[in-house]
What we know:
By secondary structure, the protein is of the alpha+beta class. It contains three helices and eleven strands. It has helices at residues 15-32, 54-64, 100-113; strands at 4-11, 35-36, 44-53, 70-71, 74-82, 87-92, 129-133, 149-151, 155-164, 167-177, 179-180. The strands form three sheets. A five-stranded antiparallel β-sheet has the order 2-7-6-5-8, covered by helices on one side. Strands 3-1-9-10 form a four-stranded antiparallel β-sheet, covered by helices on one side. It has a two-stranded parallel ribbon with strand order 4-11. The longest helix is centred in the first third of the chain and has 18 residues, at 15-32.
Amino acid sequence: xxxxxxxxxxxxxxxxxxxxxxxxxxxxxxxxxxxxxxxxxxxxxxxxxxxxxxxxxxxxxxxxxxxxxxxxxxxxxxxxxxxxxxxxxxxxxxxxxxxxxxxxxxxxxxxxxxxxxxxxxxxxxxxxxxxxxxxxxxxxxxxxxxxxxxxxxxxxxxxxxxxxxxxxxxxxxxxxxxxxx
Length: 181
């Protein structure tokens, strides 16, 4: 067992919402190829913290236990693509890349993490759920329009990511039911 974790905070879909997203992934996979994200791994990353020692994770979990985390509804209604990592994703098409509450949650989370020693990244927040990795090509013209998913996240999770010869698997280190709408 390593003495560190690769950790991130994420919004986790319910089993029903993940199954609907899996339908999107199958449709995109038929056009783009690549590797589908396992159903149980679907999530929307809020804050990637990187490699973190066990003791620091323990302190983070204790701090997070005192945080109130509110969420609202969003509409996942479009595919997107990150060319360099060759990823196809599902996300909100709203102006600004998602609802205001989601960007407020992201900002609030980083305001809490910075005093604990995690510097906020310089890149902008781009809310998405990774559906495919290592895609051969991406042309949205060939993808069928996805059936929009009205999603109200109900759980925020601190996750440890581990790699093995069979792929990546995630372990929930901390979880909080969400308040809000």
